[in-house]
Design goal:
single chain; globular; 21 helices; Growth Hormone, Chain: A
């Protein structure tokens, strides 16, 4: 990282000098320190993808062993997503109040405890509960890791760096099936195999705990602390809300918060439902395939379709822009799911299925899976950035929970073709939300975008309040 980015911000410096430091960081070239933060932050998302994929294989393995019901299987597959929503809000709020550094690293400890303990679960309800603990830690990783990377990155490469943090998911999606296949091929008992799979989810999380504790507080947060007292005094004098209440009082920011949250919710309904249910989906298309064969098909989809999508998105997001990339992804996903519904044989023949289902993964990564992760870092002010990020991520995980629970139940009941029609409709809703509710923040500094773009809306609210009238739509 440049010397400007490394230099700690002295709390006694005046705001002009500190703002100059942020401007220097915005123009800094990508350095070794940036890559260190990227790897340290990204390892959490490797674990996220590994743990959330592997539970689909584990559920298939213990279904017969423990004689679990369909509702228990759905809850096992989806509860971690629900608790991750709670974790995202909790850790996001704490990171805005106490600082990013104060909290960073402890979320992966929660994740690791949940992963290790679940490997020793004596029964299905223990396993479901411990997956909930793991999910709480996963949720906490979203707002803090993304924000730290975004607040250190330069404005010209910010989208790429945040996207690369998230692209570590791709490695988790590939390593998960490889470990599952390797363990199943060894011939060890099913009971040992699934427990080892779950326990291994703690390894990458624990490997970065110490590194996360060494990352310094971001200069942007330190500057916000310096200015916060003055902002609160000004807000009190002008009878305006500050902090998160100030966001909710700002019409433009509120629209963006709703838009970011809705887009993430709709996308995760589609994506996580299909990812966690992928063994069920592939089994419907290839009913005679063994568990190893089914896992091999999902591995092929992730490696051939998902991995390139992540990498191309990271390489192009700062050129294409967030809004266009998200719109293209939602539109292409909707088209592929509509084809699975309408094209004869698309859900009963392996090759057409793999092509279309693979297309949904490519355009998920080269689209809203990446952009929904990037957006909340860039469109909210620093004082409430992780809080707003936590709300948006929680909405996404709520969508993932609903999608997983619903799709795992719907697939055996109405079949893959009709389920694809429902998913296509949800993707189209995501396109509409993106077009109507989200801005384009590419190429601007975080301060320019969050302060200047919302200043007119804040001023309009203040004038309107003094006159006792409603402000015009932002």
């Amino acid at each position: 990282m440049s010397s400007a980015a490394k230099r700690a911000v002295d709390p006694n410096e005046d705001a002009a000098v500190s703002r100059e430091l942020l401007a220097q960081m915005d123009e800094a070239s990508t350095s070794r320190e940036h890559w260190k933060i990227l790897i340290t932050s990204g390892m959490g998302f490797f674990t996220d993808a590994y743990d959330l994929f592997i539970i689909g294989v584990v559920a298939a393995m213990i279904k017969t062993e423990w004689h679990i019901t369909s509702s228990q299987k759905s809850l096992l597959s989806s509860l971690a997503l629900l608790t991750s929503a709670i974790g995202a809000i909790a850790f996001g709020r704490i990171a805005d109040r106490l600082g990013r550094k104060k909290i960073y690293g402890y979320e992966v400890l929660v994740l690791a405890v949940g992963a290790l303990a679940s490997a020793f679960a004596p029964g299905i309800w223990w396993l479901i509960g411990l997956r909930g603990v793991l999910g709480f830690g996963i949720g906490g990783d979203y707002p803090v890791s993304a924000t730290i990377m975004g607040e250190y990155a330069s404005k010209k490469n910010r989208g790429r760096m945040i996207a690369l943090v998230f692209s570590m998911q791709a490695a988790g999606l590939i390593v998960g099936p490889l470990i599952a296949i390797g363990l199943l091929k060894t011939g060890i008992s099913t009971d040992y195999a699934w427990r080892i799979m779950l326990a291994l989810g703690a390894v990458p999380a624990l490997s970065v705990f110490w590194l996360r504790r060494q990352i310094k507080e971001t200069p942007r947060f330190l500057l916000a602390q310096m200015e916060d007292r003055e902002a609160k005094q000004r807000a009190a004098a002008e009878h305006r809300a500050s902090g998160l209440r100030g966001v909710l009082a700002n019409r433009r920011l509120l629209i963006w918060l709703i838009g970011a949250s809705l887009a993430w919710l709709l996308f995760d309904f589609v994506y996580y439902g299909n990812t966690i249910a992928s063994p069920v989906i592939v089994k419907l298309v290839a009913p005679h395939a063994s568990l190893v064969g089914v896992t091999g098909y999902t591995l092929a989809i992730f490696a051939v379709a998902a991995l390139p999508g992540y990498l191309i998105a990271a390489a192009t997001i700062d050129h294409i822009g967030r809004k266009l990339l998200q719109c293209l992804g939602f539109a292409a996903m909707a088209a592929a799911f509509l084809a699975l519904w309408l094209v004869p044989g698309a859900t009963t023949t392996v090759l057409p299925f793999l092509l279309l289902f693979g297309a949904t993964y490519f355009f998920a990564e080269f689209g809203p899976n990446t952009t929904t992760f990037v957006y909340p870092v860039e469109i909210f002010p620093v004082r409430v950035r992780t809080s707003c990020y936590g709300i948006a991520a929680a909405a996404g995980k709520l969508g993932a929970f609903i999608g997983t629970y619903v799709l795992v139940a719907l697939l055996p009941a109405i079949g893959l073709s009709r389920t694809s029609a429902i998913v296509a409709g949800v993707a189209l809703l995501g396109l509409v939300v993106t077009l109507t509710m989200l801005p384009e923040p590419k190429g601007t500094s975080l301060e320019d975008f969050t302060e200047r773009r919302t200043a007119s809306s804040t001023a309009a609210l203040g004038v309107a309040a003094s006159r006792g009238v409603r402000p015009p739509s932002a």
